[in-house]
Amino acid sequence: MAPPFIYINGYPAVGKYTVAKRLVQMLPNAKLLDNHLLIDPVAAVYERSMPEYQGLRKLVRKSILDSISTSLSLRDVTWVFTDSQSSDKVGQAAVADYIHAAQTRGSPIVSIILGCRAEENVLRLGAAGRLKTKLSDAEILLKIRETEDIYHFGGKAELEIDTTKMSAYHAAQAIFDFVQKVSPAGR
Fold first, then answer.
1. What is the pTM of this model?
2. What is the pLDDT of residue 128?
3. What count of Cα atoms within 13 Å lies in the side-chain half-sphere of residue 173?
4. What is the pLDDT at residue 185?
5. How many other CB atoms sit within 10 Å of the CB of residue 44?
6. Contacts (Cβ under 8 Å, ≥6 apart) of 33
7. How confident is the model over 6-20, as pLDDT tens digits?
8. Strands 78-83 and 5-9
9. Which residues contact residue 124 at a Cβ distance below 8 angstroms, ignoring those fewer than 6 apart?
């Protein structure tokens, strides 16, 4: 069995990228593919409100995932992905691309849902060092939190972590321990 795909999902500014960077340092032979590596090239071409936006996002995502899932050079890499997908049709379609890539590669998916309290989430939104292409509007964030549910895979290979009072290191350690428990290939 190939090493796992570790899929870290959550609302914007809950700490996905920060935690994922720490996790990659803990895992042997791991790589991080942050969702903004897929979003930013598309956002440079189309506004999110334009009809072509989602189509190009899917094309970029599928191209990268297809390459990862079929590459012999990357066969022994544990992949850590960050994302912010809801349970709506667009979110389900995006997650289906990850599922297809994992199946093609023979990798189990370990689903991690990161969250934090709304007040903390708003504070993190304004943190120094956030990319300018990341969401920065607190009103939009709160509306997303009120109207969208984060996508859940469900099952034994899913862990939810509230990072409100947890350091990125401790969250990464909890994920590392969970991966060791549910995915022997992640060792």
1. 0.94
2. 60
3. 5
4. 64
5. 8
6. 64, 68, 79, 80, 81, 82
7. 999 999 999 999 999
8. parallel
9. 13, 14, 15, 116
The residue ranges of the chain whose pLDDT is under 50 are: none
Residue type, 135: L
**Per-residue confidence (pLDDT) for residue 136, from 0 to 100:** 77
Tell me the angle at which helices 35-43 and 53-70 cross, rounded to the nearest 10 degrees: 140
22 and 175 Cβ atoms separated by less than 8 Å: no
C-beta of residue 144 within 8 angstroms of C-beta of residue 115:
no
Cβ-in-10-Å burial (0-12, 13-18, 19+) of 185 comes to middle
Q: 26 with 170: CB under 8 angstroms?
A: no
Structural contact between residues 157 and 111, judged by C-beta atoms closer than 8 angstroms: yes
Angle at 60 between CA 54 and CA 63, to 5 degrees: 135
CA 163 to chain centroid: 15
Q: CB under 8 Å to 161, separation ≥6 — which residues?
A: 112, 113, 114, 115, 171, 174, 175
DSSP E strand stretches across the chain: 5-9, 30-33, 78-83, 109-115, 158-162
Which residue in this structure is represented by tokens 């956002």?
43
Residue showing tokens 């934090």: 116
Nearest to 32 by CA among 97, 1, 77: 77
pLDDT tens, position by position, 122-132: 988 877 666 66
